[in-house]
Each structure stands twice: as C-alpha cells, then as structure tokens.
Amino acid sequence: MSRKSFALRISPDLYAALEGWAADDLRSVNAQIEYLLSQSVKKAGRWKEGTLAVLEASVPEASAADTEE
Length: 69
Known about the structure:
The protein has 69 residues and is mainly alpha-helical. It has four helices and no strands. The chain has helices at 12-24, 29-43, 51-57, 64-67. It is globular. The N and C termini lie far apart (31 Å). This is CopG-like ribbon-helix-helix domain-containing protein. It comes from Deinococcus rubellus.
C-alpha cells in the first residue's frame, strides 16, 4: 500500500500524550495517530466502504481501553 508523507506540527504536550498512549498500545506514535484518525473518519461516516478496511489492516488492533468511550 502506498503511503502519503507530510509534516505534522503539534504541541509538545499533545505529542507526549500520544507517545504514552502509543506505548501502552505497543504502537509507534505514527501508527497511533493513524489509528486514531481512521477511527474518527470511520465514526464520522467520511470514508468510502471497503477503503477503510485496507487502512485498518495496516494499523495494529486497538486494546480494550481504546474501544471504551
């Protein structure tokens, strides 16, 4: 699967929070951000059916803590 690269500018505090969350889920920060974005896009109904499955296959599964709201 081809991947798009881009610069992301976020606050150091947000990065630290994402870094800790990613470590808890045994993911890289990049994979954690991609997972969170894919879940948000899916929840908002902004993704074409079938396309999201390809994206989700590239990101490790969420822990039970991720699915609790």
